[in-house]
Amino acid sequence: MGPNILIDKSTLQSLSRREDRDEISHLFHHYEVIICRTLLLEILGDLSKETSSPDDVVQELSHKLTPLDSKVIPAWQELCAGNLLGQAVPMDGRPIIREGTPVTLADGRKIIFFDETEEMKLLRKWQVKGFTESERRFAKERREAYESQNLEAMLQTMRPVLKEKKKFKSLEEAKGFINQSLSNSDKAIQQNWLGYLLNLLQISAELTTLIYNRWLKLGMPTIGIFAPYGEYCIKAITLFVVGTVNGFVSTKNTNPIDLEYLYYLPFCQVFTTKDIFQKKMSQHLLRADQEFIPCEILKQDLARISEEHSRQLKAQAPEERTLYERYPPDLENSVTLQMWKKYMAPKRKNPFAKMTPELHKQIMEQVRPVISAITQHERKESNFNAPV
Q1: Which distant-in-sequence residues (6+ apart) come within 8 Å of 332 by Cβ?
Q2: What does the pLDDT look like over 329-338, one tens digit per residue?
């Protein structure tokens, strides 16, 4: 529980998990960490690096991610395609997660059970170096595909929409031009944008027909009305390509990979990275109610929190130690504390500060039926999926 924070691989690599300075644990303790598909693919991509121990690198990074206090969200392509087909995709800082399964408890109460995601299963496998040959091939092919991308060719696909090879004075000016084009009610321009997005997503012919028919049925509206998240993705990639061609961002071959993190910005409250390209681009894509924290600042803050937590533990006798509170410590100029004050409810007394045997028993009485119902549900699923 905590503010929703989107992290990239540079952040994951930067934060330590040493016993005397466990920054990564405090990240997951005080934030709801959003794990996107791009992060997992980047971790897997390290298998293809020509280093002495790529398996060890992937294992170490995998160990830094925990299913607790995190949310794995669907791939941006999946969200975008769903939006084009009419599915709502809220872009208000809430992470989008897959639907849970209704489970009925013995006393008739109903709960929603969220099973372990396929992504988390992969992470557990990577934590013990359970890499398959197909994963190694995929990592190599993905890296080669990104390294061979031609930005000028990408710009050519935008020509029907951007009309002319316009020069801009800044990314902000380019952003204004793109927004103006996307809001243009000219149906031919909107059709070009829609076609560009479908080509970007590599949508099948069958789905393309469904999407076009829906667009026509609604009166050929602007992309922003038809598929708001689709419009956001167009803004992000178009700003990247135009910005690169105009020299506002570098031509680093990892930029297309780093761009993919920015497709998930609508689903977080806080974004952090160490990457220069992402820092620059995110400033033009974040909403006014979102916050950007440079990874260097976040790392320093989490180190201070870790030190304060250790100090508090040393000051208490073992029998007096209580559960570590979610609300961050009251440290001067703490960005984590600032994020909690902005996005979370005011601090209140921890109901579990003194866990008596009686309170522990009451809690377990409430939890036991839930565990039992989930176990029965998993057994039914296992029997249903068992080979005949």
Answers
A1: none
A2: 899 999 999 9
